[in-house]
Structure formats: structure tokens, C-alpha cells
Amino acid sequence: MSRVTWSDEGRDWPNRAASRFVDTGRIRWHVQVLGAELGTAPVVLLLHGTGAATHSWRALAPLLAADFTVIAPDLPGHGFTTGRPTGGLAMPAMARSVGDLLRVLGAAPDLVVGHSAGAAIAFRMVLDGIVAPNAVVGLNPALMPFPGLAAKLFPTFARMLFVNPFVPHLVAGLARGPGDAAAYLQRATGSRIDPVGVTLYRRLFATSDHVEGALTMMAAWDLDTFARDLPRMTVPALLLHGGADAAIPLASVEQAAKRMPACHVQVLPDLGHLAHEERPADVAAILRAFAAESASTPVPQAVS
Question: Which of 25, 52, 80, 295 could form an S-S bond across to 48 if both were Cys, CB 3.0 to 4.6 Å?
């Protein structure tokens, strides 16, 4: 199967009643809005990581909706969102496109939360003045360039995959074939998630369009430039890291935090890269507390 369709893959999508489709020029967004009406509660924006979609927030979003208006889109190239931003799936273009969506919705987030590569988009939005939240949170954030030789090999490998039109179909075929998807996810992320989550990841990766979107995003990513900009991040920031994360090392997260004047790291022991899917109640409590604390925190000066 090539395309993710709302009538098929989305037939029993988590929080489906909160879903809507919104057009912003070249992009038709699938976005979920939960909780209080806009303008009546603080707004939290949730940005998923590469290869994921709104299902990643299936348990966390309803918990946050008790205190916030929650906005969670499928990023371009992912899930049920169709179309591409001007500039493709590079980080600045992705950040601008999410900003376009927020303007159409009439929403200004008080808290921005991003998972993995979604965290980089969240920070990029703040750095570029697209949003002005009270705080930003990175969940198992992918913010720093790959170390050593990987810094040179990974972009080349990702671009090689992108320009080969057979690769998305090959990966999608593997996802449809026999095998233990739960075991693969655990090896890749260090997380044990519920069977519903495993089924939804497998459902997405059985469509070549979704796989191609993830590969395209990886091929366009520029973490070197992004990392150089981090000292300008003056908004209070929290980086949550799963102690068993098999994808992002703690040293990388700590290195990113040291570049920002108002950032600290909190480790969640025994949780992996999908920590917010493993223990959503714990993560929701941390986010609520950090949002409340940051609402009255003075903004520090940028590091020169």
C-alpha cells in the first residue's frame, strides 16, 4: 500500500473524535485538538518525532487536556497530513509550516513539547520567532549532530535512501510481512509499549508514503547549524531522557542542555525512547509542573 488513508489506517485512530483536517496552502493537515476551547485555557503544542504521528500522543494528550487546550498535528510527510512545505522537509521549513497551521487555528502555544526530531522543530520554532511560549520541553530529544564518523556517514546514507525510489516500498513490505514488530520497536527504542501502539506503528510503516516522508525528513536534517543556534534559546527548557533509550544517548542530551542558558535535564529511569508512551501519566505530571513553574520564571539573557 502506498498512501495512508483516513478510511483505512485511520478507521480506529486514537482520539479520532478530536481529529480535523485543515488546509494551509500546499498542505492538508491532520491535526487533533483536545481539551478546552481555544482562548479558555493554556495551549500545549505536541510535535511527534520522525516516523511517528498523532498516535504517539494517544494516552498523553487526553491527560493534558484536563488542564490545556492540546494541539497535536501529523507533521508533513507523516501520518494523514499530505503535501509538502516550501523548502521541503528541512527543519526550518517544517517549523514555518507548523507556524502556518497555528495561525490558521488562531492558536499561540504556552508550552511546546516535541519528541525526538520533533523536539528540534519545537526549538527551531522558538529560535526563529515563530512561537513565543513560556517553556519548551524535549522528550528524548534529538538535538545534537551524530558524533564522529556518523556525522559524515548518516546524511549521505539517508540521502542515498531518499533518491532510491524502491526503498520506501521495500521497508513498507517488511512492515507488512511476518515478524515481531514489538520486538523490533523494543530493540530500536528501548521501550516496551502497549499492543495498540505497536499495531499503529506497524500500520503506518506498511505504507510507502509514510516511510518515504520519514526518510525525506532524515535526508534534509541539518543538526550542525541547529546546534550552533542553541545558545540563543532563552525560553526555559526541560529535556526529559529515558534512561534505557536505545536511540539517543544521555551524553548527547546533556551536551545540548549545556548550550542553553535556561535548560535542565531530567532522566526517567528504565524508560526508553518512547517514554511518553510507556508512562504517560508520569510525563503528564512533569509537564504540568514545569509549565506552572515556567509561567512565572524570568527569561535569562542569551549566551553570546
Answer: 52
What pTM did the predictor assign?
0.93
Q: Is residue 79 part of a domain?
A: yes
DSSP symbol at 6: T
Which SS3 state, helix, strand or coil, does residue 109 take?
Answer: coil
Cα dihedral 6, 10, 11, 13 in deg (nearest 10): -140
Compute the mean pLDDT over every residue in the chain, rounded to the nearest whole number.
89
- How many other CB atoms are found less than 10 A from the CB of residue 113? 31
Of residues 115, 59, 77, the one with CA closest to residue 204: 77
Percent of the chain that is helix, strand, coil (3-state, to 5): 45, 15, 40
β-strand partners of 139: 115, 240
* Contact call for residues 112 and 126 (beta carbons, < 8 A): yes
- Residue written as grid cell 510535535: 47
Strand partners, 240: 139, 266
Q: What is the pLDDT of residue 156?
A: 65
Q: How big is the chain by its Cα radius of gyration, in Å? A: 18
- CA nearest to 35, candidates 68, 72, 60: 68
> Is residue 233 a part of any domain in this protein?
yes
| 180-191 confidence digits (pLDDT tens) | 777 878 888 899
In the numeric block, which cell numbers belong to residue 48? 511527534
* Total of domains in the chain: 1
User: Which residue pairs from 152-157 have beta carbons closer than 8 angstroms and sit at least 24 positions apart in sequence?
Assistant: 154/218, 155/219, 155/221
pLDDT reading at 222 higher than 60: yes
Asked if residue 46 is part of any domain, the answer here is yes
Instruction: Map residue 249 onto helix, strand or coil.
Output: coil
